[in-house]
Write a structure and sequence with these properties.
Length: 462
């Protein structure tokens, strides 16, 4: 017997509809790539996203087509995501920190039909566009005044392109399992693998991320996602922040300590998320200039292990640290270091030891650790094994590699990480499988230990 509830597909545009209707005046603030601070709100973001969808339809983009974005966190990038998925196409986030030849490889693999890119990345694409024949048009995320002279094919300024749509358009309707987003793993061994998110998985993951003991996203918050939209869905914040109706603050291209500090203070940010290298730059700026934080309440730190000294730095200033772990294939959040009731009251080194672990699984992420034969290991905090995960926002196949089995007999995905899990459910990464076990070369996820998401731009080869 089936339930008798309404058929309300979990489509991404429902999020921006809700934000526009319930929190229409809520601010969306960006340090624009052109320089000045730009202010808009959810009502305008939705209106312009609808125009993006309409304009893409006019360009012949249809259900299932891939549209690449090569862009920083900005209001235009946000509109682009909702507009692309609103016409039924797939946003393909291209990570500018990949090598140019890897970018060309993934654009070809994805067969992107158009690319929306920031001014910063025009020279990068000019250098590789000959190797990306599937792209019919480059839409540069700027206005006419800032449009550069460029050799990019059919290049147009986003604002001029958008002005050709009047917004009299309705979101496309389709099944919630339709593909919404595509992000390639930043593997440095073997070809990158495409993770294909669906509308359903993105909406479910956004709901998971909002929970108090996940990222605790609320309409009372001012949120600065420093984690880029071009890698692992910005930890779902492009969905969960509008879903909750929080003020949305975006750093654009400037991730240095001084720029981040200024945004945190002037926009009264209460919650922010970034990788340790970014926090390190902020810490150095604060120490060198003897400045303090006045509104920040919580930070999420992940992407690589968070050093205990970083936890101490923030918590000494009254900022709660949530150490998080996840990966592209997991949409991406898997665990978070929120404190469980049984551990309330812990202090000093004991609390720091717990907070330094990668945390416990969030709802709809099942975890297990196994030995190389697949036998489950106990959650005793000592035995370490391959970390495997299962859930509705976790990959079951890679894009265009659908004949390749990547799950075990129980439907779990092997993360390629090696971990312990303690009796309270807190997981701790101890290594990468490929670094300790030759058998793990057969793991679906055999990537290098250092992800390009945490390599500063300055270290990327030219
Ligand atoms: P990616 O899919 O590029 O985001 O990389 C995911 C990988 O980054 C994971 O499989 C881990 O190896 C690593 N990672 C992510 N978060 C953490 C963390 N908090 N501590 C240690 N490693 C992490």
């Amino acid at each position: 017997m089936l339930g008798l509830m309404q058929d309300w597909p979990l489509l991404q545009h429902k999020i921006i509809d809700h934000a526009a209707l319930q929190y229409g005046d809520q601010e969306v603030v960006t340090r624009s790539v052109e320089g000045p601070i730009h202010r808009t709100n959810y009502r305008q973001v939705r209106d312009r996203a609808l125009r993006v969808a309409q304009r893409l339809a006019k360009d012949g983009i249809k259900l299932g087509d891939r549209v690449a974005t090569l862009a920083w966190n900005t209001w235009r990038h946000l509109e682009a995501w909702y507009g692309i998925t609103g016409v039924g196409a797939v946003y393909h986030t291209v990570n500018p920190r990949l090598f140019p030849e890897q970018i060309a490889w993934i654009v070809n693999h994805a067969q992107d039909r158009a690319m929306m890119l920031d001014l910063t990345f025009v020279p990068l694409m000019e250098a590789v566009q000959d190797k990306c024949p599937s792209i019919e048009r480059y839409i540069i995320l700027t206005d006419k005044a800032h449009m550069p002279a460029t050799k990019l094919k059919n290049a147009v300024a986003y604002e001029e392109w958008l002005a050709e749509a009047d917004g009299n358009f309705e979101w496309a309707q389709f099944d919630e399992n339709t593909a919404a987003g595509l992000c390639y793993t930043s593997g440095t061994t073997g070809d990158p693998k495409g993770v294909l998110y669906s509308h359903r998985s993105n909406v479910l993951h956004a709901l998971q991320a909002c929970m108090k003991d996940t990222l605790s996203v609320s309409a009372q918050d001012s949120i600065l996602p420093i984690v880029p939209m071009f890698h692992a869905n910005a930890w779902s914040l492009a969905f969960s922040v509008p879903l909750a109706g929080a003020k949305f603050v975006m750093p654009g291209a400037k991730l240095d300590g001084a720029s981040v500090y200024e945004l945190l203070e002037t926009e009264k940010v209460t919650f922010s998320a970034a990788v340790p290298t970014v926090w390190l730059m902020l810490m150095q700026h604060m120490q060198a200039n003897k400045v303090e934080l006045h509104t920040l309440q919580r930070v999420a730190i992940g992407g690589s292990a968070c050093p205990p000294s970083m936890i101490e730095f923030f918590e000494a200033r009254g900022v709660t640290v949530y150490h998080a772990w996840g990966m592209t294939e997991m949409s991406p959040i898997g665990t978070i270091g929120a404190i469980k009731p049984a551990l309330v009251g812990l202090g000093g080194k004991d609390l720091l030891a717990i907070k330094s672990k990668q945390g416990h699984a969030i709802f709809a992420v099942e975890m297990k650790i196994t030995d190389d034969e697949g036998k489950q290991l106990p959650w005793d905090g000592v035995k370490f094994g391959r970390l495997k995960v299962k859930g509705p926002a976790i990959a079951r196949r890679y894009f265009k590699r659908e004949d390749e089995e990547i799950l075990d007999d129980e439907g779990f995905f092997d993360t390629g990480d090696v971990a312990t899990i303690d009796p309270n459910g807190y997981m701790q990464i101890t290594d990468r499988a490929k670094d300790v076990s030759p058998a793990a070369s057969g793991s679906p996820r055999s990537t290098s230990k250092i992800s390009p998401s945490v390599i500063p731009m300055s270290r990327r080869p030219p």
